[in-house]
Amino acid sequence: PGIQGGPLMHAVAGKAVAFKEALQPQFKLYQQAVLDNAQTLAKTLIDGGLRLTSGGTDNHLMLVDLRSAAVSGQEAEAALDKAGITINKNMIPFDPQPPRVTSGIRLGSPAVTTRGFGPAEMKTVGEAILNVIHHTQDEAMLAEVRQVTTQLCARFPVPGLE
């Protein structure tokens, strides 16, 4: 009282809807699929020689250390974008690179899980990311990966936009 505004009813209503959705059995299945997809992607990247800063993932995100691939986060972000894969460059702990360059990339699984990707597709995505990271200047490889990503996106359109 005195320093607090009134309740924002639109925010209360939004939270009520979100909490109701989170109580549904489908939400638990979706969250498990998000985790399974993230773990499949993480394993594919680790098996391909990349290091995750946490050694794996227990949630929907992972931070990939690119120093072993001799590629900066900035270079990986640009090459992956050309190949149709959207990621963010991200600093890693004790990153020797400046924030505009970075030594890492951040990846997540919710968006592709919402589209319907499963573990098989995540393995394909991981292999595509590895191909691009190891061939950032190879335009033919980038075009080949772009075909793969285009086909995946055609098979799994954004819900509500198909």
What topology does this entry show?
Elements: H1 9-22, H2 25-47, E1 51-52, E2 61-65, H3 73-82, E3 88-90, E4 104-108, H4 110-115, H5 119-134, H6 139-155
Antiparallel strand pairs: 1-2, 2-4, 3-4
Structure description:
The structure is a single chain. This protein has 162 residues and is of the alpha+beta class. It has a single domain, classed as Aspartate Aminotransferase, domain 1 (Alpha-Beta Complex). Helix content is 53%, strand content 9%. Strands 1-2-4-3 form a four-stranded antiparallel sheet. Helix 2 packs parallel to helix 5 (119-134) and helix 5 (119-134) runs antiparallel to helix 6 (139-155). The longest helix has 23 residues, at 25-47.
Quick overview of this protein structure:
By secondary structure, the chain is an alpha+beta fold. Helix content is about 55%, strand content about 10%.
Main features:
162 residues, alpha+beta, Aspartate Aminotransferase, domain 1, 4-stranded antiparallel sheet, 6 helices, 4 strands
Q: Specify Rg, calculated over alpha carbons.
A: 19 Å
The strands making up the biggest β-sheet line up spatially as 1-2-4-3
Instruction: Classify the fold: give the CATH topology.
Output: Aspartate Aminotransferase, domain 1
CATH class value: Alpha Beta
